[in-house]
Design a protein that fits this description.
With about 550 residues, this protein is α/β, with parallel strands linked by helices. It is built from 17 helices and 27 strands. It folds into three domains: about 170 residues, ANL, N-terminal domain (Rossmann fold, 3-Layer(aba) Sandwich), CATH 3.40.50; about 180 residues, ANL, N-terminal domain (Rossmann fold), CATH 3.40.50.12780; about 100 residues, 2-Layer Sandwich (GMP Synthetase, Chain A, domain 3), CATH 3.30.300.30. Helix 1 crosses helix 2 and helix 7 crosses helix 9. The model has no long low-confidence stretch (mean pLDDT about 90).
Amino acid sequence: MVAASDIYEIGLPPNPANFVQLSPLSFLERTAAIYPDDDAVVYGDVRRNWAQTFERCRRLASALAARGIGKGDTVSVVLANIPEMFELHFAVPMTGAVLNTINTRLDADAIAFILAHAEAKVVMVDPEFSELVQQAITLTGRTDLLIIDVEDDSFDGGTRIGSATYAELLAGGDPDFAWKLPDNEWDAISLNYTSGTTGDPKGVVYHHRGAALNALSNIVTWGMPHHSRYLWTLPMFHCNGWCFPWTIAANAGLCVCLRAVRAEPIFRLIRDEKVTHFCGAPIVLNMLVHAPDELKDFTHEVKVMTAGAPPPAAVIANMEAMGVEVTQVYGLTESYGPSVVSAWQGKWDALDGEQRSRMKARQGVKNVVLSDLMVADPDTLEPVPADGQTIGEIFMRGNNVMKGYLKNVASTEKAFRGGWFASGDLGVMHADGYVEIKDRSKDIIISGGENISSVEVEDVLYRHPAVMEAAVVARPDVKWGETPCAFVTLKPGKDLGGVELREFCQQHMARFKVPKTFVFGDLPKTSTGKVQKFLLRDRARELRD
């Protein structure tokens, strides 16, 4: 007699009829079959439907395969948010190869490192970055790279550095290319490099399963209606655009492409293309808040998803006053982008504007794909009390956590501890189960033995009506060890000094948290809008009294 625990395994193995490898490639095929004539991509005068987009992806995959590109090969791309960047998210993995989207703001040395470390076989180049990429390729010393120029009629400048163009690949490709899903959903689909601010960047490997699940989770997290219209203000090179290329394919939505993130084209496209959704770092939201009022002439419902840094409550309040609903998410390159969401509760609807903004400023709870989330002691992995006060490290685990770091076993093992991924971010757990970030571990300020959250101080600074941007870092101090140093950008036409700003801070926080130093001027930022605090820490160390 068979044990009861075994009866569900007898004669019930997986087979092609009931088990298919998860991959976002299936999203494109489905949408092209069901909605072939619906618009898929808009960029200037370019407007393509889903049937055309699917055909172009198959043509490109065929052309790459004919040049020997296949499973395990790396295809690196240095592109702006143009339609070809969207297509490559499908065409490259259709061959079994891995897509490596490179940050366009990196210098030649960093790009050369990535090309070498990723063992790239192909490099796709935007004309805007052709000189930069040529320098990087020269630094690698490699002569075997297949370099493809991705021409853009709307961009004036750049030079051809490749042996063929994207258009030429398409012209020679087979529209009926027999692509297939991965043999294993654990196969790599993309490679994303971390910023490398404390050393060489690390290559984060995504698999098809995680990409598909997090792409679908974006729809659930945001409550996206079918056929949503998405504006590409977030770089597609950043965590594969938080998986949104695959999300829009699953949603049968519209990709509204945008080369440069500026207020005027953003508001124009929101109005003219009836954009319903877009993403961006808090710094992008702040830019839109302070744009001229005459640009803000849309009347339909618009939603924005923000992450990259804890958004000040004041920025959230100002966006929503403008008519844009804000959803904050949290994640890392290692978690496919957004994996935690500040999920809204109906019981908070009655809160006033400031209270609503403060609830939305918390990072939140796990999305539907993330299996678990905790704030714990980094050494013992013991969860901290859910009191909203005790600081610990944020840990997560689930299908939307990376495979690991490419060719870096030591860093992979360090990141995975006790069955958890260690984020390196410090936060608290509130009694309702919502996580709130207090700082990166390297950004916490320890003054006289007291921990000071730079995020908390920045939040107060943003409340001042003359402050446009603020960033706080530690400055060495003989007496206290470290003290907060605030770098501040004022709104145009505003005049404010350190004495007045210090008095304002003293009214809104404990005195030991008030910055001892104020520096006024522009803040250095990455291409995704994150303030480069490592540069500010260097400047703070060099300041003289």
